[in-house]
Amino acid sequence: MLSPRTSPTRDIVSLDGLWRFALDTHAGATPWASRLASPLEAPVPASYNDLFVDTEIRDHVGIAWYQREVRVPRGWAGERVVLRFGSVTHAARVYVDDRLVAEHTGGYTPFEADLTGIVRPGTEFRLTVGVDNRLTNVTIPPGTVTTGSDGRDRQSYLHDFYNYAGIARPVRLCSTPPTFVADVTVVTGRDGAAGTVDYRVETAGEAADATTVQVRAVDETGRTVAEAHGSEGAFRIENVILWQPGAGHLYGLVVELTADGGTVDSYTQSFGVRTVEVRGTEFLINGEPFYFTGFGKHEDTPVRGKGHDDAYLVHDFELLRWTGANSFRTSHYPYAEEVLDFADRHGIVVIDETAAVGLNLGVMGGLTGAAPTPTFAPENFGGPTRDVHARHLRRLIERDKNHPSVVMWCLANEPASNEEGAREYFEPLVRLARELDPTRPLTYAAVMFATPDNDLIGDLFDVLSINRYYGWYVFTGDLQAAEQYLEQDLRGWARRFGKPVMMSEYGADTQPGLHSVWDTPWSEEYQSDYLAMYHRVFDRVPEFIGEHVWNFADFQTSAGIHRVDGNKKGVFTRDRKPKTAAFALRRRWRGLDGRRPGPAANG
């Protein structure tokens, strides 16, 4: 699915702003049939949970309704009209006046509704969206809804971030010609000083067979550097400027459909020329070893929840640059397309992850002490869940395949890879990912319970990403013992699988302003000492290729005795103020510049 862009043949109208809002308990039986009788308004994009001082809204389980009027530009006569949502968390039903025009499940990927023939240029229609936040064992991520003795539904889930809901990403009304470019795929390589580009263009519409495809690559000044003809082909860019970490040079692939000597449709797909490869125990970008420094992040900000915000986007990337980070993981779901576009332009490397978090019933057993049930049993996640996971994986790769910043696909966070049934679950997903994109390596983030001795799926993947919390959840406050066990653990993974190893999560909850001269958990000094201990170990393991601290910034979680106002493992507070550890990371990372550190790198 192409990202919406204006062109000589395409226009876009933003539908962001204030929409009428009501919970289903206050919206009537058919809220799409008339104007919502609600005094509430909610901004789009944003999550709705933290906007209002109403517990009923924050804790709501079920459907909430958004509504607004939309006027179709009068100049769109004869054009195809498309309504596009960046995401709706977690499922949506979309109505134009009284008509259902789209249904979608999956809270972190875009979807469209073709309104051609349903709406008329120059007229207005009522747009109503039902947003369903419920998670079950056949959603990604999974969850459970129960009904209490008071008749209220309650949502539980296995992931450690708040279940924000709403229309979290931009909504746009778009026009295209009736015959149009439907999809573009770009795959790049290198041949000496030249860049090689393979492309594929898919067209649609009644007259698609009567059109001719022409493509040309343009540089950042608009100068044409290569041309080709046909819906599939290849070309070379001589003296190519590579897309590199820290230097996000982009080209544009201008795709034009022509018929009878005229342009039918025009769409420009940005791309960067770069290669990615795993060779032995090294991760190579453009043939050079690359060492990941950065974070696991979250789309999480005060008031907005998971709502996309360009101001936070810019500021977060500035803080990444300030620390010396060169990369991040989209934990634990695909981020907004605007985030990846920004990473492309600024040379930040991305590990792109599906929303498959919580596929591990052993985690809940570890927290509660109850005996866990088998994660991959048919009644849990071993049945239709994998088919849903496959659909999410397909949508992720189809959406993000052209982003040069994306160098690796992460299929899941902390699955029960040590349990029976894990291999049967993941083997078809790995095969699907390689079919959809054979150019990028694959990884998954391994949970603490999965060890080099009992993990069942590590050999299927290209890079071993390990989540570890020695010194926090295990050996709390004892960094000496934690260091010993961490090194044994990492060396064990490297020895068994002979693949690159990176740390996809490591961190300690830290209350800003708490200080201590001792190794006191929750203090800012302990967080810095904890990270320094991990870095000493990383520098001693030859197969090690990167470090992603958990987390970039504090974030909201569900309420409970395990969390006080959310997860505090951020090196920045939720409103982006640095803790002491941020300065320690800056001293370490700014001297690395994508190179593997040695023992002297510890500061």
From TrEMBL:
User: Does this entry carry the keyword Acetylation?
Assistant: no
| Sorted UniProt keywords | Glycosidase, Hydrolase
Q: Which domain of life is it from?
A: Bacteria
Pfam families associated with the record: Glyco_hydro_2, Glyco_hydro_2_C, Glyco_hydro_2_N
Describe the location of the Glycoside hydrolase family 2 immunoglobulin-like beta-sandwich domain by residue ranges.
180-274
Q: Which residues cross the membrane?
A: none
Glycoside hydrolase family 2 catalytic domain residues: 276-591
The record's listing under PROSITE patterns reads: GLYCOSYL_HYDROL_F2_1 (PS00719)
Which residues does the UniProt record annotate as the domain Glycosyl hydrolases family 2 sugar binding? 13-177
Q: Does the UniProt entry include the keyword Hydrolase? A: yes
Q: What is its EC number?
A: 3.2.1.31
InterPro entries in alphabetical order: Beta-gal/glucu_dom_sf, Galactose-bd-like_sf, GH, Glyco_hydro_2, Glyco_hydro_2_cat, Glyco_hydro_2_CS, Glyco_hydro_2_N, Ig-like_fold
Signal sequence: where?
A: none
Report the PANTHER family cross-referenced here: BETA-GLUCURONIDASE (PTHR10066:SF67)
The entry assigns this protein to a family as follows: Belongs to the glycosyl hydrolase 2 family.
Q: What is this protein called?
A: Beta-glucuronidase
Q: Which gene encodes it?
A: uidA
